[in-house]
Amino acid sequence: MSASTGPAADAELLRQHVDGDTEAFGELFKRHQDRLWAVALRTLGDPEEAADALQDAMLSAFRRADSFRGDSAVTTWLHRIVVNACLDRLRRRAARPAALTGDEEALDALAGPASGPDPATASATRLDIDAALRVLPPPQRAALVLVDMLGFSVADAAAILDISPGTVKSRCARSRARLLPYLDHLRGNRTASESVSPQGGDA
């Protein structure tokens, strides 16, 4: 049973699915769903969109399972499909400027409510980060989420994104440089507010 979590077992489940086993793909998804969901949620920053992207991705994987060539781990292949589904949604969102408010004014507006004596500091911080991520082009955002937020190695992120490790490093470096002013600004607003409020909680 311990072998059931290994890469070879994943490939076997995918083969069983292609051969007509009606349970195999569900088992494969169940095994990796938490990680796949985390990728979708952190990349899109919206639970509804993340759920839709994950569903689209898994439908695609279900239907295209026979196209898996075995040149990467099954989990890498699944993550790549999820990331691509998320990037498609980000690009469609970017094509509707009114729906994408990732400029400094939007970030300042988000920082205002978050700076009050709110016990859910972690949730407020998450909102700030999600808002800041919106300023990044989708490819940079995907690389940063995988490496800095979800802890994938540069090599694993490169395999998932189907780019070179050097490109992953470059995208992450540019993303960090671009986000730093926004996150410092938001953190500064919150710190100043908490110094006035006697109920300012721990970060």
Task: List descriptors.
203 residues; mainly alpha; Rna Polymerase Sigma Factor, Chain: A; 0% strand; disordered C terminus
Concise description?
The chain has 9 helices and no strands.
- Helix fraction? over 70%
Count of the separate structural domains: 2
- Taking pLDDT < 50 over at least 5 consecutive residues as the criterion, the unreliable ranges are 98-120, 189-203
Largest sheet, strands/sense/barrel: none
Return the structural class: mainly alpha
Using the alpha-carbon principal axes, give the shape.
globular
Order of helices and strands: HHHHHHHHH
Could you please describe the fold and organization of this structure?
- The chain has 2 domains: 1-100, Rna Polymerase Sigma Factor, Chain: A, CATH 1.10.1740; 101-203, no CATH class.
- The chain is 72% helix and 0% strand.
- It has 9 helices and no strands.
- The longest helix has 32 residues, at 165-196.
- The chain is globular, with a radius of gyration of 19 Å.
- Mean pLDDT is 78; it is low at 98-120 and 189-203.
